[in-house]
Amino acid sequence: MKHLTFDPKSFLKTTKHTDTQDSDTQSKVSARAWYDRKYIGYEIAELSEAKDNNEKPPITFKILDRQFTIHSDLYDIADEIRDSRNILDLKDGWDHSTGKAVRPELYFKCIDFLLMYTNYIHKIYNIVIDAPEINLIPSGSIDLSWRTQGARMLVNLKYKDNEFLATFYGYHKSNMLPHEGFIDILKVDESMAVWMKQLK
Q1: Quick one: DSSP state of residue 3?
Q2: DSSP letter assigned to residue 177
Q3: Which DSSP string do the residues of 43-91 spell out, in sequence order?
Q4: Cα 158 vs. chain centroid, distance in angstroms?
Q5: Nearest in space to 115 (alpha carbons), one of 128, 102, 125, 104
Q6: Backbone dihedral region of 162: left (phi > 0), alpha (psi from -120 to 50 degrees) or beta?
Q7: What φ, ψ does residue 139 adopt, rounded to 5°?
Q8: Residues 40-57, buried b or exposed e (16+ Cβ, 10 A)?
Q9: Residue 19 in 3-state DSSP?
Q10: Alpha-carbon distances, residue 198 vs 128, 173, 178 (angstroms)
Q11: Helix residue ranges per DSSP H, the chain
Q12: At 114, is the secondary structure helix, strand, or coil?
């Protein structure tokens, strides 16, 4: 339980009694003081806890016409997404060569994919995975790249043949066994979510 927000010494003050007060009256006063200290104090502390718990509202921000709301625990993910919005400003030739501009719908598919997995892992396993680097590739596709103490993972999202596709490659440092293939960007793959728990 959190500390009370008022002076706890006030609970220790005793009521002054005159000599005419009998022990019965003093006993009732003491009992009342104990009741106030035990129950009223706890109620105030609980209200203080509730207030503290509400001090971190969800993180909300907007990119173009899309608004995102993210749990406050995922602030690193939110920061990386907000930083990545500059990708949308890049034009063809952004790399001083043949680099292609990103399709806005691909960018948002990428962000939705990232949030889908990070929110799921946080909600189901109470784990906050690290924020990946979000980078535009000269081909016009987007990479999500994780390099953590426990694992490495690269997810590439692209638009090809009129559909959005995602491939991944990664390994856990504990065994170095490669994990790769295609991944559904519209729904969570439970086995993939379990694997991604190491990205922290």
Answers
A1: P
A2: -
A3: HHHHHHHHHHHTSSPPEEEEETTEEEEE-GGGHHHHHHHHHHGGGGG--
A4: 26
A5: 128
A6: left
A7: -70, -10
A8: ebeeeeeebeeeeeeeee
A9: coil
A10: 10, 9, 14
A11: 23-35, 41-53, 75-84, 104-125, 190-196
A12: helix
CA pair distance 5, 146, nearest whole angstrom: 42
Convert the pLDDT of each residue in 105-117 to its tens digit: 999 999 999 999 9
Contact 174, 191 (CB under 8 A): no
Which DSSP state fits 161? T
Q: How many CB atoms lie within 10 A of CB 62?
A: 10
Q: What is the pTM of this model?
A: 0.72
User: Is 54:102 a contact under the CB 8 Å cutoff?
Assistant: no
**Tokens describing residue 138:** 């000269």
Separation between Cα atoms, residue 132 and residue 115, nearest integer Å: 11
Tokens of 103: 């399709």
Instruction: Quick: pLDDT tens for 55-78.
Output: 689 999 999 999 999 999 999 999
19 CB burial (10 A radius; 0-12, 13-18, 19+):
exposed
Pick from 106, 87, 102: nearest CA to 163: 106
Residue with tokens 């921000």: 61
